[in-house]
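User: Please work through this fold.
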Amino acid sequence: MIAFTAPTPSLTAAFDLHLQRTAPIVVGRIGTGGVRSHVTVIGGRLEGRPEGGEIIGGSETRLERADGVTLVEVAYLIRLASGATVRGHGAGYEEAGGALRLSLLFETPQEGAVPDAFGRAYVGEQATDSRVMTLHRID
């Protein structure tokens, strides 16, 4: 048997997303099970390195399962201080108590100078009753 060894990833604090969300729109119970809902992200800000920015839109689609765990798919549009627009997208889960955990990737424009930090993978956590999601870069 061949032994597989890979480096253990580390996490580096990177950004805070301050999200402004609308109330959920409940689609209802779906045929495959669970309750589907949609939340629109109407604004907010990105704080951190290498530059900050403004959240100009986005969405969070949720599927609440019978076991109390809610699956979450997100997409955020962010206008950086440099003027470039990036799209953050990912998926994760929300615990019954409300804590949110997800993984995020960023799509960046091909033209213009966009910081290298947006070509990396991130994990995000948002505590129960908080509007701030903390992102850590996976190194």
Notes: The first strand starts at residue 11 and ends at 21.
